[in-house]
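Regression check, adenosine-5'-diphosphate case 193:
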Amino acid sequence: MLNLILFGPPGAGKGTQSENLIRKFNLVHLSTGDLLRSEIKNGTALGLEAKRYMDEGVLVPDAVVISMIENKYNQNAEAGGFIFDGFPRTVAQAEALDAMLGKHAKPITCMIALEVPNDELLRRTLERQKIAGRADDNEETFRKRMVEYESKTRPVAEYYSAQEKFKSVQGVGEIDEIFAGICTAIDALKFKV
Ligand code: ADP
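Current build output:
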């Protein structure tokens, strides 16, 4: 059982590395960003509400993302393991996640953070804008997302650090090299739970 959180600022490469991790460890992928974009695509009430926040580059309210994650988790509760991507993004979300997993006696194994300098994050975001066409991938919104990250999301690293479940990994370089760094970090932490 591996319950992994992939952590990092916008544009750190969480989505790319999640794909590698899912394949290697056979995990169910729970990405709040992807789930929210799918709600928007389907035109649901939740999607309509979330879109206003996402286009502004601010976090969607905790209650919305927590109940979305709980639903998806319960649909897959028998899975061998999970990768949480883009969640938790606030300490309140982390506490809700720990409470949910506690009920199933399947705690978080570790949180791996991808370290990428801010200028590289912006460069990647503008590159992604050309390919994916996401409304929030422009310089102005990117800067707001970074402010949200620094004020609300970074404290989540300290939350898991206090549980001795946190490790950061170099997020710049070849995709395979970064992946190797992530796997080494998981190996170092996975026997602690
Ligand atoms: P990135 O990793 O590039 O920031 P995401 O796809 O993870 O992109 O998130 C896009 C947007 O979706 C965020 O800016 C935020 O508005 C919303 N969002 C995603 N996950 C969460 C979350 N856990 N809590 C609150 N808002 C979220």
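Comparison notes: The chain has eight helices and five strands. The mean pLDDT is 94. No diff flagged against the previous build.
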